[in-house]
Recover the amino acids of this structure.
């Protein structure tokens, strides 16, 4: 895997906009922005209504994912190029999700919607539909997904990376200030987790930093590249972005995204929690 | 979850005596620039938040008292402006790109 296998730039997208086997997909936190405008021939995925089970707290099943992609007109052999706003935050989440269900060729548009806009590239408002397909997904690849029972045994053994903001990590905030919902019962972080806010891996224009800068960022924070890694945030979306950086760009072999993340871990009974700005020991405790 | 509000957060229901507000307009040649991006960086230069400007070029952040840097990104431009925010006051600035 190398950068060119997983990232494309805007020139590449403009050159392949009309290729029948290239599907451009916009995935945004603000799911309405697609209606305003989007890149020509891009379809939309709604992370909230289409990528989450609407009853249980979980992803859609394999069968639901197959039905979704079939209806969207995506084939197993298509090259799927994802993009979105806010440094590709939700596009990265969708990337991980496509990999979870085994899509072979999926890539991100480096810089996403923001860089496209800052470069004054064209956006259109006409809605695109593609003819339906018969998509066949693989069983979930749980080698890239961590679950709650994986966390406590990993304390002090594996790398755990907390990608939330420093105030959420320390326990001073339960959620970003503009997102009051989806809170855990307790503030703090998983003991021994190092803090590397996800946004540090992107440049101002939303593109990913260079491999050298990224390696320095994570090793400087105390991540041991010789160990397996679990990344988490609050609900598993910012950490999907970090999963992309570690697994797809830096080629780390065993990196899992813990999508239950802090809203789950911080509500568990009896697990160790650490407060304050330091990783702490496996027992957890106050700062 | 809700998306970042274009132009920044609403002042509705906010006790302005307790809030520390940084707001303003991004302009180019005196005209407001909609759809630009404004980043809020803390005193160490670390990224804190980002909002797109409204159609009338406006943005707003709720910050903490202290010194902040606003970085406005628009096609072909990246401009920094240092702002001092005070609790109970609205820092209102114009960023020309």
């Amino acid at each position: 895997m190398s950068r060119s296998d997983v990232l494309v730039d805007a020139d590449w997208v403009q050159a392949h906009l009309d290729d029948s086997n290239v599907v451009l997909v916009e995935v945004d936190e603000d799911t309405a922005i697609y209606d305003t405008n989007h890149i020509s021939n891009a379809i939309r995925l709604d992370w909230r209504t289409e990528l989450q089970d609407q009853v249980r707290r979980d992803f859609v099943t394999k069968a639901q994912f197959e039905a979704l992609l079939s209806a969207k007109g995506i084939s197993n052999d298509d090259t799927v190029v994802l993009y979105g706003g806010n440094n590709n935050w939700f596009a990265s989440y969708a990337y991980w999700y496509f990999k979870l269900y085994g899509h072979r060729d999926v890539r991100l548009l480096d810089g996403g919607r923001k860089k496209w806009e800052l470069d004054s590239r064209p956006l259109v408002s006409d809605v695109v539909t593609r003819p339906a397909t018969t998509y066949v997904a693989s069983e979930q690849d749980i080698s890239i997904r961590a679950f709650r029972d994986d966390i406590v045994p990993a304390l002090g053994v594996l790398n755990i990376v907390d990608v939330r903001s420093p105030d959420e990590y320390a326990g001073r905030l339960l959620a970003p200030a503009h997102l009051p919902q989806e809170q855990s019962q307790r503030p703090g972080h998983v003991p021994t987790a190092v803090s590397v806010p996800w946004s540090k891996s992107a440049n101002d224009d939303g593109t990913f930093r260079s491999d050298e800068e990224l390696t320095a960022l994570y090793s400087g924070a105390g991540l041991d590249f010789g160990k397996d890694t679990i990344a988490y945030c609050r609900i598993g979306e910012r950490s999907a972005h970090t999963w992309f950086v570690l697994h797809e760009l830096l080629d780390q072999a065993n990196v899992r995204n813990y999508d239950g993340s802090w809203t789950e871990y911080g509500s568990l009974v009896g697990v160790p929690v650490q407060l304050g700005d330091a990783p702490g020991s496996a027992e957890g405790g106050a700062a | 979850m809700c998306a970042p509000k274009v132009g920044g957060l609403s002042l509705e229901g906010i006790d302005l005596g307790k809030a520390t507000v940084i707001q303003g307009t991004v302009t180019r040649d005196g005209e407001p620039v909609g759809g630009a991006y404004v980043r809020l960086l803390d005193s160490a230069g670390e990224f804190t938040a980002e909002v797109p400007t409204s159609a009338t070029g406006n943005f707003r952040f709720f910050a903490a008292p202290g010194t902040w840097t606003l970085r406005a990104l628009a096609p072909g431009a990246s401009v920094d402006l240092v702002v001092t925010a005070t609790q109970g006051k609205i820092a209102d600035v114009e960023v020309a790109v």
Notes: The CA atoms of residues 71 and 80 of chain B lie 4 Å apart.
